[in-house]
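Let us work through a complete example step by step.
Step 1: write down the sequence.
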Amino acid sequence: MRRTCISVETNYQQIFGTAMDSPVSAVVANRVMEDVETRALNTFISGPKLWKRYVDDTFVLLKQEKLTDFFNRINAVENSINFTMEKEKNGSIAFLDTLITRLEHGQLSTKVYRKPTHTGKYLHFHSEHPLARKCAVLNTLLHQADKLCDQESERKKEIDLVRSTLKQNGYPDKLLYRKKSANATKSQEHETRGLAILPYLPGLTDKIKRCLTTNKIQVTSKPVRKVGNLLTSIKDPVDIKSRQGIVYSIAYRHCNKRYIGETKRSLETRQKEHKADIKNKRFDKSALTQHTFDLNHRMDWANSKVLEFESNYYRRRFIESFHIHSDNDTTNEKRSDLFPDIYRFMLQ
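Step 2: predict the structure and record it as tokens.
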């Protein structure tokens, strides 16, 4: 009696909603699936030879004459969960990223599987992402070739395909054909003082990372622009002067000086507060009021500018300090406690 390979998939993600977005929901969903498959398999006197599940995909090895009965029984266990089945074709079946093929003597061979719709597009080498992330793309694909291809000939074909595909995505030969160092695959534990998550800006973030890693601070980067930022918003646009959480600049009419500040409120509200401070001669509120009375300079309120948007208070204070220290024509006090010396190289 010949056994056949089948791939069984469930619709449990539709039942549990965004199960994979929440670790708790994913655990609950997985336990429900374990209960369902346990009840289903216990109803068989002679069940599948092999049952391997990952999330909602299952690889099954079962006798051909039992396929229909098996499929009907697992679908009768839980009405809210629907199983679908795919049989092997021409001795092959895809499971996750692996193509499993039956050989002449009944043995199974594996290699990397790509869907027919695969475009060969990966993270482009000239995109604004850290070099480590681009290296990770190459290392992941090469690791996949090593682990999924059990025959040396298929492994070499896969590695050649990876290199040619990444070359089309801008990856240089120096990176594609580099030799792995002896410690490349060994995980090394380093004592760290903390973790810093920085927006990735070519050139600048790399400099900051070198300074932080020297001081045993682990650094990871995130892109400044994401696909969601490039899509058109369906909401009505908000006037810039009405947006809250800003770093702003107000110029003086009679000189080249300007005042830079930050506020969790809007620019309109902050301007009203500054006007009230000037009217009531509250010199302790800001350097803007002091400069106005010392030199009798009027403010150019109409040409006030919003420099940055940032809702987080501490990040907003740092951005404000960066603008104050990078501008030689501000009336603000340049405080070193808000802009430490380690960041001075950013201004060069």
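Step 3: interpret the result. The two ends are 77 Å apart (CA to CA).
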